[in-house]
Amino acid sequence: MRIPRPLNRAVLTLIVSIAGACGYGPPEYSASVGDYHTPIDGHVTIAVRSFEVIRPPRGIYRLPDGGIPLGVDQGIEVNICEQQRGTFRQIAVLHVPVAASSGSSTPLILQWLDTAVRVSRAYTRGDTVIALPTGVHTGVANRDPLHQELHRIALPECESSLTALRRSNRMPDGTPITP
Description:
Blueprint: H1 5-20, E1 23-24, E2 28-37, E3 44-55, E4 57-58, E5 70-82, E6 88-95, E7 109-113, E8 116-121, E9 126-131, H2 159-167
Antiparallel strand pairs: 1-4, 2-3, 3-5, 5-6, 7-8, 8-9
């Protein structure tokens, strides 16, 4: 039995269109504030955000349970808000190779140093010392914020910028986040 040529083309077109609909969609971006804090009697607030870029599965790649997204980029960014400025600006970005990921975790501020802050690195479970911009001091040395009573406190001048930072899904690019 011979199949008519228009039917062959229709079946071939259907197969090609199904195959073309498979794969991964365009990149999706997400970021969230993991921790923020101001040292006691300090004049800066530090906020740490984790970020991730994925490409969601499409077509039959979504089977059987929605599929597994393709990781493109991930890491943390460290932002600072100085009392006299009132807005957060990015001071460091730590990218983690997607293949090296060992599961996500929330980045935390681990220790205040006078001209730096030690933060945990999401995904790698290590930590890193981030130097503050030239001339900026925390006002304390070797103080562990995890054991202070005043944890997750932001300077009043930085509150609206912190709200904007929480709501923002922008990826690290060094620009200030304004309320």
